[in-house]
Design brief:
Strand order of the largest sheet: 3-4-5-2-1-8-11-10
Largest sheet: 8 strands, mixed
Order of helices and strands: HEEHEHHHEEHHEEHHEEEEHE
Oligomer: single chain
Number of domains: 1
Structural class: alpha+beta
Number of helices: 10
């Protein structure tokens, strides 16, 4: 199965059933670390995803290196507007692992990268949308077929991450309210599915956590990590709901 078909399958399944997105960050003492954005649709496969793929589909188990993929697509990407080229270039340091197995009813996608500085991190949900754009940008039949494109609010919001003096922040700023309103209006028939879906943060730190600004945060036993979950529709319509400030012990 081609990469773009895999991503479109995930998009279609997402719109048919509820699901969970998970943003995970591991931070080291020096501020470096790794970040991932995962989609686990295994339960969706149990509810009919394998029928969508077809009985004769082979197992998909592959890792995409976006730097290589961008190089392979460089000619067609060069024909895009400069702003679109820059958005796609943001994928350069990322990799994506996909596993879809109808027999074991597994559907897992994990997009990940390593970083030297927390300040360089980006909005992973919008990056996933750009990953799908990368595969459809030279196929007119697929343009507009990506349901993530209407939900991504990259041009309406800006997500910044900082880690200084034992304080970590994830801050979402609304930079264009009109465009965010357009995202909200585009939900349409997907409203029920979005309301049943979740967005989860899993953050891990090199020191014990003193406090987290999110009331729903659940701490690990060693108090060096926490998880927090919000309703996905609430996050899409109010991105500031996942603004986070984490204060670590000295």
């Amino acid at each position: 199965m081609k990469l773009q078909n895999v991503l479109l399958l995930i998009c279609c399944v997402f719109l048919m059933y509820s699901c969970q997105f998970t943003e995970t960050i591991y931070i080291n003492d020096d501020g470096s670390g790794k970040m991932s954005f995962a989609f686990d649709g295994s339960q969706l496969m149990e509810m009919g995803g394998n029928d969508m793929m077809g009985a004769d589909e082979k197992v998909v188990d592959s890792t995409i290196v976006f730097k290589d993929f961008l190089e392979a697509k460089k000619d067609s990407i060069a024909a895009l507007p400069q702003a679109e080229q820059e958005r796609l270039k943001a994928l350069e340091d990322f990799k994506m692992h996909m596993l879809i197995d109808p027999k074991t009813q597994k559907m897992v996608m994990d997009m990940y990268t390593e970083f030297d500085d927390v300040d360089g991190l980006q909005d992973m949900f919008n990056l996933m949308n750009q990953a799908n754009t990368l595969n459809s940008q030279d196929d007119e039949a697929q343009k507009g077929a990506n349901p993530f494109s209407d939900l991504a609010s990259g041009e309406a919001t800006q997500v910044d991450y900082t880690y200084k003096n034992n304080v970590f922040k994830r801050k979402v700023e609304i930079i264009d309210q009109a465009k965010l309103d357009a995202v909200t209006d585009s939900i349409g028939d997907a409203e029920m599915m979005l309301a049943a879906s979740t967005y989860v943060l899993n953050y891990h730190f090199p020191k014990r956590i003193k406090s987290v600004s999110l009331e729903q945060a659940k701490f690990s036993e060693d108090h060096k990590s926490f998880s927090a979950e919000v309703n996905f529709k609430a996050y899409i319509t109010n991105p500031e709901s996942l603004n986070v400030e984490v204060i670590l012990e000295d």
